[in-house]
Task: structure prediction
Amino acid sequence: MTIIPSIKRDFLVKLAEDGKRADGRKFDEFRNIEIEVNVISKAEGSAKVKIGNTQVLAGIKMDIGEPYPDTPDSGVMITAAELIPLASPDFESGPPRENAIELARVVDRGIRESEVIEVDKLCVVPSEKVWLVFIDIHVLDYDGNLFDAASLAALAALLTTKVPAERFELGEDYPLPLKEPPISCTSVKYNGVVVMDPSLDEEAIAEVRLTIATDKNGDIRAMQKGLNGSFNLDEIKKIIKTSLDNGRKIQELLYKSAGK
Result:
């Protein structure tokens, strides 16, 4: 470990011992969130999300294609993420690396397991033609907590998506059929302290990470643990509660931004 990370670690740990964070937030508090929709004119739906200084762009494209053999009457969702080198010195150009693949999988799982997209309504001809929904995530600026920013950007983009039926001579365009979206909230632990919406420096010293996607009914729709550390039962219970509390607030902001 170099001297600068050591200094940062000691500084953050000392602040945490005093019940503080570097940016003045409470342990369970998110940074400021901004959501802007319809930012890509060529996409079926799009959104840009800022959480603090982290910025993520999501675009939705749709096409007609073949269904999976085991779901012949359902549409298909495909999620990809790109970590643009300009967003961070740690990101490299070229094929998707492990961190980009993990980001895409976490976002995909939160949407897929919650059945946000009503894929059974995206069948055109059973076993032959269905709608394909491509979710493309681009990280523009990385300052911690990509999971929540990317998930929120994807959801905002989906909420504004129109199925391009006219382009394929299938009638008039119509809104993508969706159910209530879950909200992803990420927490990390370092030196015995659990904080939500980690900054880049907090992520750098984190021992364990937990992302929980919850819906407005208070149900957990997806969970993803990362890193090699562990949480105890009380910590997990507290993370679930703070995820629910923050999730409700973020969902209100999401709907308001998408004009719902």
In short: The chain has one domain: 24-257. The helical segments are 3-17, 98-113, 146-159, 200-204, 233-257. DSSP finds five helices and twelve strands in the chain. The longest helix spans residues 233-257.
